Amino acid sequence: MNALYNLTIIAYSVLIRIAAPFNIKAKQLTLGRKRAFPDLEKQIKHDKPIIWVHCASLGEFEQGRPLIEAIKTQHPEYQILLTFFSPSGYEIRKNYNLADYVAYLPADTPKNAKRLISMVNPEKVFFVKYEFWHHYITELKKQNIPLYLVSAIFRDNQLFFKNSVSGRWYRKMLFGFEHLFVQDQHSVDLLKSIGVNNATKAGDTRFDRVAAIARTGKTVPLIEKFKGANRVVVVGSSWRPDEDLLVQYINQHPEIKFIIAPHEIKEPNIERLTGQLDNRWARYTKTTEDEVINKQVLIIDTIGLLSTIYRYAEVAYIGGGFGVGIHNTLEAAIFNIPVVFGPNYNKFNEAVSMAQKGIAYPITTYAELENVFDRLLSDPERRKKIAAESAAYTSENVGATQLILQKVF
User: Which domains does the chain have, with CATH numbers?
Assistant: First the structure.
């Protein structure tokens, strides 16, 4: 299995180099990995011990972020190295001010693992959610550096729990962790069933992140002008299949205002979306407070605002559910509003829980979307009941970050 794994890593690295001239993310990953070692060699100072936090992409960063912030506040004696696998995370968070160093994770080869760990010499390491890299885990174990898994979820159908050659090989990686902090009791039980007893149900650190956002009370004057006294639906991280359904509803309901933050904000995608809208629309970066008052749709064509904008919604729609999976529902739920999303949500514990509690509404067709929106937007008493249930749900789930820090430190 070692040889097959190594071959897979090498093949992937070759393929992204081949794709680099034709694909922007492949190019970013290729160049980013090439720069990782030279940049870190120039930047790293060992005047303070280093904690290494690794995230696959932007979603995992939102789970690692509360941990970084808490370490910086409660243990300022440490530096932070933040690494990403994906350009989607690195390119957006490469200037994150609470990380002392930010880099791409070099490919998981024995040579790279030994070089990076020896160069950084971290005192503690945190991998977030689904990051299992054989050679990095092996080398950390070899050097007696404690490695922790954060906000993980385990499911019965994962390789770790299969009695096969590949399953047993992957299972060995779990024993390289000092401790595994998981989101639910089922994960704890699954791990125990294969002899991994160093796991704790801590919950999802994203609850702590979104709770902190809600506490800031940050406002956006232009959006306040746009909303006025109107009912507003905020659409977060939408993809084309989401938008194709939403546009039908928007065009048929000019009395409802919509704020749309597409997942992809490149010009062709914005133009495609606005071209479908019958009624008055504006782009956030190209309008004024006076102009926006009379618009029905506001397109958010910049990043960094979505988590704050949800506070202005009566209902939120979370994109991605007609693709590989929905985006962050907690950013909306923390403001105690009903949440609607597409059918691919079962891999997200919080979405499943919210749907079971009746504070989130999965839909698969336009007819279902129309029915849910009509019911929620026309019934303030229903929204008030959902708000109370949502507040109870989110308050029950904060605290994962502090639990992790207490055990680790």
Answer: 2-212+399-408 (3.40.50.11720), 218-397 (3.40.50.2000)
